[in-house]
């Protein structure tokens, strides 16, 4: 029938149109995939699932970027990883084998030095002690005092080995003896003496005894360095230097009455002489009952009185002697 034929023709056309559309769709898809990557043309290339490397940027002409395994680092001291409970996993990499730990060598045994003979030490040279004075033997009344001062190098004799114990002592000589033996505070400034030149051999000694309060000049301003010193001046000098306590009038008189000539002293001298007697500085020689205040003091008198002054300062030990003034 004509109507059936026309319907059959329309259905046939529709089928061809559908086929053509399908071919166009598949052709478009094929062209799109072909333009995106170079793969073999075929259905298997379209249907097979595989990872595709990302496309390189257009216009660079470079190969697509590929994952690169980290290169092993050059040998370097391995650092201890920081202790972190959440540290991310680190990509594995080839590590250089650790250097073997050095094996400690056995400690070297000390080599004993070869025995050597120590050189013999020469004995230390000691300063020679002067020989006893040839004119002061054990029978001399001042021997124990002079000998002890000699051994302690407080006094010295003459070049010929003598001491000359009976020789009077000048004021300059007494200053030299006291300068080398005395210890005490400074109490005054040096005094200018017109009769004591700057180049006098005893100038420094006189200045020293003056500042220590031991000696002073006369009322006329002179020092009289070459004048022999009297026993009275000797005892007053030591009593002043030691700053001895002065006895009260009753005790003062009792001390002076021990000497037959004690109360004949000038009143200004009595307190100092009584203090020297009370401190056991006065000697009885040659007369046991006389002070002999105006007699020149000998080197033996000075040595004994100086020793007793050092005893009072606790710098020497007492020596018993019948020639000292015993206390009642």
What does this structure look like?
The protein is an all-alpha fold and 328 residues long. The chain has a domain at 165-312. The chain is 34% helix and 0% strand. It is built from 9 helices and no strands. Helix 6 packs parallel to helix 9 and helix 7 (249-256) packs across helix 8 (270-278). It starts with a helix and ends in a 16-residue tail after the last helix.
Distance from N terminus to C terminus (CA atoms, Å) equals 190 Å
Instruction: Count every helix, treating DSSP H or I runs of 4 or more residues as helices.
Output: 9
Range of strand content: under 5%
Number of strands: 0
Tell me the helix content: 25-40%
Oligomerization status of the protein chains: single chain
Rg, please? 63 Å
Mean pLDDT: 76
Identify low-pLDDT runs.
38-126
SS-based class = mainly alpha
The biggest beta sheet reads: none
What pattern of helices and strands is seen along the backbone? Answer: HHHHHHHHH
Structure characteristics:
328 residues; mainly alpha
Brief rundown of the structure:
With 328 residues, the protein is mostly helical. It has nine helices and no strands. The protein has helices at residues 2-36, 43-47, 143-151, 171-181, 203-211, 231-242, 249-256, 270-278, 299-312.
């Amino acid at each position: 029938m004509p109507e059936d034929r026309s319907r059959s023709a329309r259905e046939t056309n529709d089928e061809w149109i559908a086929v053509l559309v399908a071919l166009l769709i598949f052709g478009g898809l094929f062209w799109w995939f072909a333009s995106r990557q170079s793969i073999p043309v075929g259905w298997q290339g379209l249907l097979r699932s595989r990872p595709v490397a990302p496309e390189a940027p257009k216009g660079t002409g470079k190969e697509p970027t590929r994952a690169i395994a980290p290169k092993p680092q050059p040998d370097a001291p391995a650092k201890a990883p920081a202790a972190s409970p959440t540290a991310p996993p680190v990509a594995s990499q080839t590590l250089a084998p650790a250097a073997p730990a050095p094996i400690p060598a056995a400690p070297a045994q000390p080599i004993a030095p070869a025995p050597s003979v120590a050189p013999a030490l020469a004995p230390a040279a000691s300063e020679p002690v002067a020989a006893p004075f040839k004119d002061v033997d054990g029978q001399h009344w001042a021997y124990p005092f002079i000998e002890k001062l000699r051994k302690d190098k407080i006094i010295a004799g003459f070049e010929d080995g003598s001491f000359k114990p009976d020789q009077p002592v000048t004021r300059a000589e007494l200053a030299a003896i006291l300068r080398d033996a005395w210890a005490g505070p400074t109490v005054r400034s040096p005094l200018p003496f017109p009769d004591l030149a700057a180049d006098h051999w005893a100038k420094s000694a006189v200045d020293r005894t003056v500042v220590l309060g031991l000696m002073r000049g006369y009322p006329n301003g002179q020092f009289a360095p070459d004048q022999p010193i009297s026993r009275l001046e000797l005892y007053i000098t030591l009593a002043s230097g030691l700053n001895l306590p002065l006895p009260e009038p009753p005790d003062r008189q009792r001390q002076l009455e021990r000497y037959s000539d004690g109360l004949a002293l000038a009143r200004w001298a009595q307190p100092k002489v009584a203090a020297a007697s009370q401190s056991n500085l006065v000697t009885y020689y040659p007369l046991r009952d006389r002070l002999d205040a105006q007699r020149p003091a000998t080197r033996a008198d000075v040595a004994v009185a100086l020793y007793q002054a050092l005893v009072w300062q606790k710098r020497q030990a007492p020596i018993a002697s019948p020639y000292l003034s015993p206390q009642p």
